[in-house]
Write a structure and sequence with these properties.
The chain is 21% helix and 36% strand. It contains two helices and five strands, in the order H-E-E-E-E-E-H.
Length: 115
């Protein structure tokens, strides 16, 4: 891919990502980072490199031997280059789940492989 084609492809990806994220403003979202951390909170804003501002947030720490632990973070900034997945949580369904009874292996860190 030539330099100009790569730039156009990259810019179109950023534009579509920002328009998608605009729909999540003031909604409850779950963010999974490349190191496997799961943060849940209200998306308050973001910038062009997709740095996220999440309010009323908490980290969900998963364990195979005990329930999900939730650590309060409050207002939290997540670096855009560390975001692997972001999605909206249906508050009615998402908060009805008893996380204290869920036992699951924590996510592994994201592995980048070169071609």
């Amino acid at each position: 891919m030539t330099g100009s084609k790569f730039l156009k492809h990259r810019l179109s990806g950023i534009i579509s990502m920002t328009s998608t994220l605009e729909n999540y403003i003031n909604c409850t979202v779950a963010v999974i980072t490349s190191d496997g951390q799961t943060t849940v909170g209200t998306l308050k804003g973001f910038d062009q490199p997709i740095n996220l501002i999440v309010d009323e947030s908490h980290e969900r720490m998963f364990s195979s031997s005990q329930g999900v632990e939730q650590v309060v973070l409050g207002l939290y900034i997540i670096r855009g280059d560390n975001v692997a997945v972001i999605g909206e949580i249906d508050e009615e369904t998402g908060f009805a789940i008893d996380l204290g009874n869920i036992q699951v292996e924590p996510l592994n860190s994201l592995v980048h492989r070169r071609k």
